[in-house]
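BACKBONE STRUCTURE TOKENS:
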Amino acid sequence: MMSNLSTLMPVSPDMGKAYWKQSRFERSEIDEEKRLITHHMIVPSIMPGTIIFVHGVNSEGEWYAKAEEQFCKGLNLRLGRSDLARSEYNPTTRRFYRARENNELFASPVIPFYWGYKLQPGDEQRYPGIYHRDDKAWGGGPFQNGTNNLLQFWQDGFRRHLLGGVVDLQALNPEISRQLQDAPPRGYYVHAAKRLANLIDTIRSDFPNEPINVIAHSQGTMITLCAMLYVQKRPPDTVILNSSPYSFDTKVTDYLSAANGDADVQTADARRNTFWSISKKLTEARTQYPEKDKYDHECGWEGVNGITTLHVHVDPGHPQANSHVGGLVDDQPWHEHEHSGRDNRGKLFVNFNPADRVIGVSAVAGIGWQGIPSKILNETSPMFANVYQRVFARNTTVGDRSNYWFNFFNLTTLRQQVESRAGGVTTGYGAPLQTQGTYLQTFDGKPSRDFWMPASPSVAGVVPELATPTDSQRVWINAPVVPDPVRLGSDFQEMSIRFDGVGLQDNGAQAHDFSDFRQFYQPVDVTEKDVCGQAVTRKETPEEVAARMAKYGQQQIAQTNHGQILEYDGNVSHVLAYDITVGFGHAFGDPAYWNYLKDMADWKISDPYYKTGQLPDIGGYPNGLDTGTNKEQREQQARWREMWDKKAPAAPSDDAASGFLRSR
């Protein structure tokens, strides 16, 4: 299994370094009266655990740098320390530097996980417009290949033409910023999930007590959920799903886009059962917590020339052991503080954003947009006792309360000012004037038509592209409160921008996206009449494409709001940083081992699939994945009806029935 997931030679941690801290001389104090010299040493704090980031499709972790900075800031606040700081980012390689110029590791608990799709020979012809760099790879793979359930991981990719070519989805696509083209089979998702599981198992094998947290976004949440089914050791302590496309309901588009129709569509029950299997497995992080680590390793550090050093290790059973993880918070030891010391082990968090224009698409409508349905997660749902949910919505506050219902819409009664020339409340002989009305408003008091801002475009000018919750839809918010709740302003829901990014202060991110779009754009069909008046179809000329790109670049496009949970100031540092598990993290202690873990997490460094382009056999379904499909469910229901019909007593004949009635 290892050879299919990593090309690296296994590295065992040096426990003499991992469990020992090298302190350095700071200053000396001389007490001449007592003839004593006191040397003050700086003893580094223990890393509070490990945090693994997992990105989604069409991505190389663009949110990683800001999220890492915010997690470090938030953990400093939570633990009463000041030393944690994010790694330096190289925008050219889209990777983080491993160490400072003096070879000292950046004091960050984050391991960035990278995955993607490697083009096979012939892919550029099979999948026109498929994005790739010079290395024939693309981080996260094609955006249109995302899924809303795990069963799709073992199925074919996105298809542009449906119903035997009758329906062309690209022709119906109202968005100019993305072309919908065929995409490859999704087995690379399974491979990425196995790599993530292998990374977690590796840390667990070497450090059974290591606090491990997985922070996933978008399709990365699906990779993470699938990885939980492959984890062999104790699962991560905490998993946080942000903007997840996972859906508990089947949709017509699931059937239309499936190669085998209903035979490929996972049932609603199967989706719920799969999610339950994963959440149940995560409880093992709490119930199967092992004995405390043994701290009997000999020191593996050597002294530093010219510097007085002292090497120390901390027994977790010592009364003051927690002081090496954090300090005082509100004049209390961090582990005794109501919020800082919160135990999050075995918990699964779901964070959603009602303004997410990626997950809010009707064909997806995932839990990252509308949350977990109330029939599944509510105040009395023991099935998901370890699942916690937060809503991140414009003009609302996050983390100020818990255990309440969030309504997407509210009925509001407004009184109206009424005037009558007669001075009364009636006119003529008619009914009294209406002086109040009931209106449907969004959760933040806007007219219901402004749920989507800008408004949803329409497919074929008829069907809204974006879904809208029902008038009475609500979801249960049960995530714990935080000490400093975050107020999300109206700017949390971003508005429109120029497609080409001109004038934006975003370090060139949108301009880069437009450049990719222009590079891989596929000319569309143009129909015109020839000299004989006959309709002729041809492809756009290069000149026409250039003109289209110039026109598109100046157009306004709606921002997706897809990364706001992890990128909006305060969300991570003041909310998510309190939702992860913290404790004694020793994997960071050995620099060589820590860098080995980072290499394992980067598919461009260690993944044989990236190096050879040959995807290993993904195998069958893992335990915990309910593979029930709509076709199987329909066939089972038919068998039940047939069995019932055979057992049911025969209905009386008309003659017998009429005779019975006459006898009455």
